[in-house]
């Protein structure tokens, strides 16, 4: 089933990632002197083995995500993953993420969002886009699209709570396209709901998320609005 998202692939690594990547180190940043003239500071670290040839991050788009827990600022880097960056910005600008839940929170692993059951947003669910090459490390605070197999990315995104580089394995190929630059403490405060590993029932969310959310005793953190600000 499409948009099982992290349920299949990430579930395989859940225990190992929590045990080996559970530290709370900040996303590392290179100094300005390490980047080509005119490039932004290299705020994403290349995966091990790719340090000699990462693309320079010459562009960025900043997204403000207002949640019921507080504001999160995200930088999106087109050179890091062109297809993913373009889709995320398109979804933000369309209002897709407005008034939607953070549907899955696994402390020490990931927080996931990106289900909107309302029209016309629901149509994005089946608009898959092709994978980008996996170049940058899945470190704490970085973002990647969730998927159920090769080239099945569409709307769901996860934020890494820890270093999850195992997910860059060619079998999975989860690709970093951005990172949280402010408000990671807010992400840490996202409410864990539903199944401890799987979160809320995605089928019910896609079918009638409003009714489903009303039925919950423990309410998820909600994304009130996401907007491009720079």
Q: Can you characterise this structure?
A:
- The structure is a single chain.
- The protein has 4 helices and 8 strands; from the N terminus they run αββαβββββααβ.
- The protein has a single domain (6-28, 42-47, 54-228), classed as Cyclophilin-like (Cyclophilin).
- Helix content is 20%, strand content 20%.
- It is globular, with a radius of gyration of 16 Å.
- The protein is an alpha+beta fold.
- A hairpin with a 2-residue loop joins β1 and β2 (70-76).
- Strands 1-2-7-5-6-4-3-8 form an 8-stranded antiparallel β-barrel.
How does the SSE layout of this entry go?
Layout: H1 6-20, E1 61-67, E2 70-76, H2 82-94, E3 100-106, E4 110-113, E5 142-145, E6 157-160, E7 176-182, H3 184-188, H4 202-215, E8 222-228
Antiparallel strand pairs: 1-2, 1-8, 2-7, 3-4, 3-8, 4-6, 5-6, 5-7
Task: Describe the structure concisely.
This protein has 230 residues and is an alpha+beta fold.
Which descriptors would you attach to this protein?
single chain; 230 residues; alpha+beta; Cyclophilin; eight-stranded antiparallel β-barrel; 4 helices; 20% helix; 20% strand; disordered N terminus
């Amino acid at each position: 089933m499409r948009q099982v998202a992290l349920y299949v692939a990430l579930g395989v690594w859940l225990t190992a990632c929590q045990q080996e990547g559970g530290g709370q180190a900040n996303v590392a940043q290179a100094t300005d002197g390490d980047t080509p003239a005119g490039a932004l500071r290299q705020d994403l670290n290349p995966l091990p083995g790719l340090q000699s040839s990462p693309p320079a991050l010459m562009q960025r788009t900043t997204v403000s995500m207002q949640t019921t827990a507080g504001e999160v600022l995200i930088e999106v880097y087109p050179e890091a993953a062109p297809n993913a960056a373009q889709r995320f910005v398109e979804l933000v600008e369309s209002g897709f993420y407005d008034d939607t839940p953070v549907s899955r929170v696994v402390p020490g692993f990931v927080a996931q969002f990106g289900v909107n059951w309302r029209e016309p947003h629901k149509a994005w669910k089946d608009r898959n886009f092709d994978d980008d090459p996996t170049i940058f490390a899945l470190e704490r605070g970085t973002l990647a699209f969730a998927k159920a197999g090769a080239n099945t990315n569409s709307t769901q995104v996860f934020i890494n709570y820890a270093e999850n580089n195992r997910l860059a394995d060619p079998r999975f190929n989860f690709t970093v396209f951005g990172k949280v630059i402010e408000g990671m403490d807010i992400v840490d405060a996202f409410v864990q709901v539903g199944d401890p590993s799987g979160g809320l029932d995605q089928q019910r969310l896609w079918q009638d998320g409003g009714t489903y959310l009303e039925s919950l005793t423990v309410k998820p953190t909600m994304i009130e609005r996401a907007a491009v600000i720079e």
